[in-house]
Amino acid sequence: MLSTLEGQVVNLKEFVRDMRVTFELVKGCTCEFDSMEEQFKDFVLESLGSNVEKMKRVPNSITSKLMGRDDALEAMMSNLKEEIAKLKRELTICKAALSNGMLALKPKQRAIYVPKLEKFKGVRSIRETENFLWEMKHYFRVMSIEDDVVKFQIKLKKQFYLQYARKEAQAKLRRLTQQDTVWEYVRTFSELMLQISNLSEKETFYWFEDGLKSWAKHELH
Q1: What does the alpha-carbon distance between residue 167 and residue 173 come to, in Å, rounded to a whole number?
Q2: Interval 19-63: pLDDT, tens
Q3: Do the Cβ atoms of 136 and 117 come closer than 8 Å?
Q4: Residue 220 belongs to what H/E stretch?
Q5: 194: part of which helix (H) or strand (E)?
């Protein structure tokens, strides 16, 4: 019986020794898990910090893009309003012309009101001058005084149109630069020179050379 108890004691000691080994292993794994947990926390915090900075920059970028689009949209709306105003004036003139055509068949009908032309502001723009001449032509046609409109157009063009065309050509010449081939540059330069008659040979050469690219200037000399 004593030998049996001694055997059980030996077995118990071995069991305790095995448990200690197992405990040490578990303790080591726990330390590793704690270290991994700290590393994971650091990684998560670092990732979140980086993403927060990126997210802060996103609204600024979106705001800049939206402001740019707002400016472009505002310019587009301004141009559209001008075109609409012009179309309204043209529509009024056409309606008046149609009504006056019907009045020729029915003399007893009441005359239709035709809005007066806006005063010519003398703006230095060929396009504005052309628009004014077009509106004036239709206005005089409605008023059945087409002979006078021809005389007026001739007089206006002599006084304003040629002068503005020359000044506009001079402005374009000062801004002209070579963009593509030399041939295209020469063609555009020649077209502008046809509208300018008061430049000397020295001035013409200066403006021609000034708009060329560097390599073309070098070849010219």
Answers
A1: 10
A2: 776 767 666 666 666 677 777 777 767 766 666 566 556 566 666
A3: yes
A4: helix 214-220
A5: none
